[in-house]
Amino acid sequence: MSSELPGVPDHFQRLWTPYRMVYIQQGQMPEEDACPFCRAPELQDDEGLIVHRGETCFVLLNLFPYNTGHLMVCPYRHVGMYDQATTDEVAEMAVLTQTAMRVLSQVTRCQGFNIGMNQGRIAGAGIADHLHQHIVPRWSLDSNFFPIIAKTKALPILLEDMRQDIQAAWPA
């Protein structure tokens, strides 16, 4: 029984995520001042969580997803704001967003999406210096007590498994 194990009980909840150890052991976490969206395309698709590489933009899974299948579309070019993107980058971001919605609908059977960009740190951008658009699949019952009460998000599939499913369903 766990009550017989040594240690002092505390009030912390623990969500074990051993699959994350690969990022530590294989040195895949970028330096704190490095841009993860500039680094991802330099890696193999599985290491960078990339599901599709386009001409000016690429699509990857969010390493810290809000929901299963949470994708982002990023230009390869390191640009921070939407109004600094080229016409070609904006057009490809739009096309890749539509394709991502279709693929996620097929793969996850989601019923809706949150799509958006936070422009600048003051607006909530976690990585403010590299433009990226979020595509978050939603289901009618995906809001439960876990995030509200326990500040924990339950994700039913590993990132690499979801990446493989999305990449396999992406049109050629």
From TrEMBL:
Recall the GO molecular function terms of this protein's record.
Answer: catalytic activity; nucleotide binding
Motif Histidine triad motif boundaries: 130-134
* Keyword presence, GTP-binding: no
Q: Which Pfam families match?
A: HIT
The UniProt record lists the keyword Repeat: no
Active-site residues from the entry? 132
Which UniProt keyword terms apply here?
Nucleotide-binding
Q: Where's the HIT domain?
A: 36-145
* InterPro entries per the UniProt record, alphabetical: AP-4-A_phosphorylase, FHIT, HIT-like, HIT-like_sf
Binding positions for substrate? 62, 134
What is the protein's name according to its record?
A: HIT domain-containing protein
